[in-house]
């Protein structure tokens, strides 16, 4: 299935937006975390600044999110990982409450209770978790619900190559195949589980090869390319929508930044990221669109400006929002 | 006369593991990011270079498999140390921990030894939210079969880790991130202290009076010891003499030390970063309640802990639910007036 112009432009705009979001967050995140404004002797203070706590950014991994989400509608479910922003943005989670959540503000998706790894948007049917491999079981649940309710909705579970060796992943693959659930399992292989490379953690090269053991199709996407992802995943979406059961997809992608912001990355070859950026999927798609006559320079400038404005507005809103009152910590333990 | 140096708690733990590995070739370490990275919280820093990947084994993210492997390897005569990054993650392999590691010695009528040390990071205070900030030592102390060690400083951490590796039973060794002396997280500097170069052990089940006092007893552990010491200093300015008791281990629990101190002061505050209900603070309060024939109280017992909510992300919310120095001061003042503090989360 070839992507039409509308889908191509959507994917390009979303990738620009995601990249801009992650780069903005990387810089805002550093505010208040560096000497001399922190405890003496520290190089970095993870708990300080307007956006405290761990921060896992997805720059470089945009094609996985947009190539899949370009096929989805609002009723479809997406469950993301601890590195969730690209999935959330591609699924249509509004930037404003998402950003406010990361600032810990009362206007956030979770009223400041969740933070960046725990984004819940029931309207756009997006959720994620800080636990590795935890995306698959709830995606099975969303698939089961769609099936029981007689809907053609699908569920997508994203997980990393590091998570592929977690028990919950294997249990979920079997369950989804057994019950023929409309789930698309997407392994995002960025080669690194924090500091442990895939070669030291997984006994085979392609996680997608495990699909046959569970009785479902396995699809391999060898390049970090949005159009390639979009085209490769189309049959899996069609299968799920038409009640033919789950698929397992694996996409080779690249993590441009550290596991978390502030990660010294002592484990990573120094020139690796510079080389990866030479194949940046965003300018690559722009070049393709322009050479095919599907985007002019002016259109490109307009897309970039629009995406940037949305990000700017979201951060401005998050900054000026109020913190929740301390006592609100006691609310929402139960519905 | 042994050499001492000031170490962070992370350095002290790594040193204890390294020295024990040199002494006993049956000791090895498994876990995520413990090799080149040296442990996310520095507990295995420098050990890969010293011992190589055969004894410092990075694992896949497969906790059920590697925790179970530790149990099996221990049953076969080795002495594994398994690190599981955050205690919040224990759920993914809980069965291997509490149905197997903690129970097999008992079910075998004492015929199996399982000398496994499980190391993990605990605690919040830096906005890491509900899935990365829990303490949960109360949960694991509640389950029979695991020894539970929760040090508050580098000196104790080294001695307790050496003791843990030599113990023939499963030991859960829990270090609070905010006292590890990490270069990327604010920490209480009292946790970094003088540590002898030579090996030494600290026996389990021996609490330590880390500050003597006469007016009230603060029973506590882990990072809350450091907060309590700061609070005691503040209270001293107000003419209140607080005794601070560092439990150091929950299993075994030094009940005698708690009773001795409370008998002396007549007032008890339990300061804890775990959840309030059904946990450590209730256990200590019950211990005193069971001994009111020999321990006379001048005020009702006061408990400070997280008020039965998950740890929230937003800074003002998290600060509100995790007891702070000022909460310990306020609760102590209230105890001196013979009533519990008002306006504290119940």
Which percent band covers the strand fraction of chain B?
A: 15-25%
Unreliable stretches of chain A: none
Please give the radius of gyration of chain B in angstroms. Answer: 20 Å
Compute the average pLDDT of chain B.
Answer: 96
DSSP strand tally of chain B: 14
Most extensive interface: pair and counts? A-B, 54 and 47 residues
Principal-axes geometry of chain A comes out as globular
Question: What characterizes the major β-sheet of chain B?
Answer: 7 strands, mixed
N-C termini distance of chain A: 43 Å
Radius of gyration of chain A: 20 Å
> What's the number of helices of chain A?
11
What class would the helix/strand composition of chain A place it in? alpha/beta
Concise overview:
The complex is a heterodimer of chains A (335) and B (346). Helices cover 40% and strands 10% of the residues of chain A.
Verbal overview:
- The complex is a heterodimer of chains A (335) and B (346).
- By secondary structure, chain A is an alpha/beta fold.
- Chain A contains eleven helices and eight strands.
- Chain A has helices at residues 5-30, 62-69, 85-91, 95-102, 136-148, 167-178, 211-214, 226-241, 272-277, 281-291, 297-320; strands at 77-79, 126-127, 155-160, 183-189, 192-193, 196-197, 218-221, 247-252.
- Chain A has a six-stranded parallel sheet, with helices on both faces. Chain A has a two-stranded antiparallel ribbon with strand order 5-6.
- In chain A, helix 1 crosses helix 2 and helix 1 packs across helix 11 (297-320).
- Chain A is globular, with a radius of gyration of 20 Å.
- Chain B is α/β, with parallel strands linked by helices.
- Chain B contains twelve helices and 14 strands.
- In chain B, strands 3-2-4-5-7-6-12 form a seven-stranded mixed sheet, with helices on both faces.
- Chains A and B meet through loops of A and helix 3 and helix 11 of B.
């Amino acid at each position: 299935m070839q992507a039409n112009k509308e889908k191509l432009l959507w994917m390009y705009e979303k990738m620009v937006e995601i990249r801009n979001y992650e780069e903005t967050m990387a810089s805002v995140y550093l505010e208040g975390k560096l000497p001399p404004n922190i405890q003496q002797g520290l190089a970095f203070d993870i708990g300080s600044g307007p956006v405290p706590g761990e921060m896992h950014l997805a720059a470089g991994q945009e094609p996985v999110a947009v190539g899949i989400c370009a096929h989805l509608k609002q009723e479809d479910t997406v469950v993301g990982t601890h590195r969730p922003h690209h999935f959330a943005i591609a699924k249509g989670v509004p930037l404003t409450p998402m950003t406010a959540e990361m600032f810990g503000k009362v206007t956030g998706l979770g009223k400041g209770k969740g933070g960046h790894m725990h984004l819940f948007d029931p309207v756009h049917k997006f959720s994620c978790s800080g636990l590795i491999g935890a995306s698959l079981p709830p995606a099975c649940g969303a698939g089961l619900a769609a099936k029981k309710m007689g809907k053609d909705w699908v569920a997508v579970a994203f997980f990393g190559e590091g998570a592929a060796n977690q028990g919950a992943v294997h249990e979920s693959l079997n369950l989804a195949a057994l019950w023929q659930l409309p789930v698309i399992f997407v392994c995002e292989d960025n080669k690194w589980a924090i500091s442990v490379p895939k070669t030291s953690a997984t006994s085979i090269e392609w996680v997608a090869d495990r699909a046959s053991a569970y009785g479902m199709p396995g699809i391999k996407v060898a390049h970090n390319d949005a159009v390639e992802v979009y085209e490769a995943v189309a049959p899996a979406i069609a299968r799920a929508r038409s009640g033919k059961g789950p698929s397992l997809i694996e996409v080779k992608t690249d993590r441009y930044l550290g596991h978390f912001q502030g990660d010294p990355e002592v484990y990573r070859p120094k020139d690796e990221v510079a080389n990866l950026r030479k194949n940046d999927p965003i300018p690559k798609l722009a070049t393709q669109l322009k050479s095919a006559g599907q985007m002019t320079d002016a259109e490109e400038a307009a897309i970039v400006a629009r995406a940037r404005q949305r990000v700017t507005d979201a951060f401005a809103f998050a900054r000026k929002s109020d913190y929740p009152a301390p006592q609100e910590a006691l609310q929402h333990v139960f519905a | 006369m042994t050499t001492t140096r000031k170490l962070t708690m992370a350095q002290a733990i790594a040193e204890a593991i390294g020295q024990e590995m040199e002494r006993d070739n049956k000791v090895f370490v498994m876990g995520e990011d413990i090799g080149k990275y040296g442990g996310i919280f520095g507990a295995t820093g420098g050990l890969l270079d010293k011992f190589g990947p055969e004894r410092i084994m990075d694992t896949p993210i497969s906790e059920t498999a590697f925790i179970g492997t530790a149990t099996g390897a221990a049953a076969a005569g080795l002495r594994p140390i398994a690190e599981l990054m955050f205690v919040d993650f224990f759920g993914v392999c809980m069965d291997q921990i509490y149905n197997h590691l903690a129970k097999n010695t008992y079910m075998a009528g004492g015929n199996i030894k399982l000398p496994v040390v499980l190391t993990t990071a605990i605690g919040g205070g830096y906005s890491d939210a509900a899935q990365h900030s829990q303490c949960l030592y109360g949960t694991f102390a509640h389950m029979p079969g695991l020894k539970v060690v929760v040090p508050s400083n580098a000196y104790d951490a080294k001695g307790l880790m050496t003791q843990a590796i030599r113990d023939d039973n499963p030991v859960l060794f829990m270090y609070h991130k905010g006292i590890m002396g990490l270069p990327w997280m604010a920490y209480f500097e009292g946790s970094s202290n003088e540590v002898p170069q030579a090996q030494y052990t600290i026996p389990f089940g021996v609490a330590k009076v880390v500050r003597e006092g006469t007016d009230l007893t603060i029973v506590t552990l882990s990072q809350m010891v450091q907060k309590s010491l700061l609070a005691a200093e503040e209270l001293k300015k107000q003419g209140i003499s607080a005794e601070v008791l560092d439990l150091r281990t929950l299993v075994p629990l030094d009940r005698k030390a708690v009773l001795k101190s409370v008998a002396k002061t007549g007032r008890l505050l339990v300061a804890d970063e775990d959840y309030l209900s059904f946990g450590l603070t209730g256990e200590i309060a019950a211990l005193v309640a069971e001994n009111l024939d020999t321990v006379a109280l001048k005020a009702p017992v006061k408990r400070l802990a997280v008020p039965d909510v998950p740890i929230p992300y937003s800074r003002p919310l998290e600060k509100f639910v995790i007891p702070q120095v000022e909460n310990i001061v306020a609760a102590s003042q209230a105890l001196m007036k013979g009533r519990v503090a008002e306006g504290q989360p119940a």
